[in-house]
User: Fold this.
Amino acid sequence: MQDFEDFVALRSQALLRTAYLLCGGDKAAAEDILQDVLMNMYGKWRRIRTSPEAYARKAMANAAANRWRRRARKPEAPMEHAETPTTRGHEQQVVDTDSVVRALAQLPKKMRAVLVLRFFDDLSEAETARTLGCGVGTVKSQTSRGLARMRELMGEQVLTWN
Assistant:
């Protein structure tokens, strides 16, 4: 299945970025979700090879939502002596990326998925609606509310992503 291997080689980095954002910046969870999705895709490759990226995005959005549901039912207990995580580094882009990821993590799962697919994966409103199985109007309203909430969370910071 050379075409599957080619797909993974060409698209896995972009899909990992999407998974990372959908998981609210949890790299380990993003890697797990992407690996699970790719494993499932391998078994279904003949049926989905005409639009594998759309399938992968939808599967990752669903997996991330399921992860958040599981975590809500069984919240993690904080460590007693853990320090508050801080962003260290010399590059402003690292700080900006961290701020965006932290703000995204505070959004509801569907709103986060809409913003990630629209602005980080550069999908149109219609493509985002198809991927998430909702209407274009829902995508528009979630985008508007999501951007407003991001502005509240991030204050005066400029929302950019490279």
User: Anything to note?
Assistant: DSSP finds eight helices and no strands in the chain.
